[in-house]
Design a protein that fits this description.
globular; binds 6-phosphogluconic acid; three-stranded antiparallel beta sheet; 11 strands; six-stranded parallel beta sheet; single chain; alpha/beta
Length: about 240
């Protein structure tokens, strides 16, 4: 598995480096092809990263040339506190000069199956395609305590190998419906940044990086990104067993 692990003293320093790398990558892609196609993740980990971008990169990134997508979304309205888009809007998108027409949110308020298909169509329409796979420049992911990533959980790990671009998923405990990118899209990105902080992720990450252990039930283990580069951003607490 070709990847690089970056370990940081704390979550704040991790977020600062993530923002710096985001800016650098956006500059490279915008200079090269005029835009930057990125999929954001949800949850708590990205919040510090979004705040860092909003506070210190407002005038250092060509925001109007970035197309924003999401790795997954909860099937809730955008104003719901659970919404990944809603969180990004509050913490970042409302604070930097993005172009509203370049925000491609999943309409969590709609019918999950219909919205999953509509999101797939939007991705196919906007992103370059390589052999039937839409290519993101960057996908930012997190890791759940159970090893899920995006909204691919151990209980529906087959979504990693779906031949669709997006699937309707379900949180195994809350039964909340989700819409998620599948492994077909996730593993086709040019760059993937996976960020994990806090001790609650440490045990699972030990399993993920234990090459000998058969980890058939850990979704994030299947994020290999054969055609691109994979960087892990961990704080010391999350990396304590590595
Ligand atoms: C989501 C995310 C999910 C998240 C992990 C980690 O919709 O919740 O996309 O995959 O990255 O659950 O969440 P935390 O950052 O809150 O630990």
């Amino acid at each position: 598995m070709n990847y690089e692990i970056k370990i940081f003293k704390n979550a704040k320093l991790l977020a600062e480096q993530l923002a710096k790398d985001f800016q650098s990558l956006s500059q490279k892609f915008i200079s090269y092809k005029g835009n930057f196609n990125v999929a954001l993740s949800g949850g708590n980990t990205p919040k510090l990263f979004f705040r860092e971008l909003a506070e210190n990169y407002r005038n250092k990134i060509e925001w109007s040339k970035i197309n924003f997508f999401w790795s997954d979304e909860r099937c809730v309205p955008p104003e719901d506190k659970e919404s990944n888009y809603g969180m990004a809007k509050i913490e970042l998108l409302d604070k930097v000069p993005v172009s509203k027409k370049n925000i491609f949110r999943v309409h969590g308020e709609g019918n999950p199956q219909i919205e999953s298909e509509k999101y797939s169509s939007a991705i196919q329409k906007i992103l370059p395609n390589d052999n039937g796979k839409p290519i993101f420049d960057l996908i930012i992911l997190g890791v759940g305590e159970d090893g899920h990533t995006a909204s691919i959980f151990p209980q529906n790990i087959e979504l990693i190998n779906s031949d669709k671009l997006c699937e309707v998923s379900e949180h195994p405990v809350t039964k909340q419906k989700r819409i998620t990118l599948t492994g077909k899209v996730l593993n086709s990105a040019r760059f993937i940044f996976i960020a994990a902080t806090g001790e609650t992720k440490a045990k699972k990450l030990k399993e993920v990086f234990n090459e000998r252990k058969n980890n058939a039930s850990i979704p994030v283990k299947f994020i290999k990104n054969e055609s691109g580069k994979l960087y892990w951003y961990l704080d010391r607490e999350a990396a304590k067993y590595l």
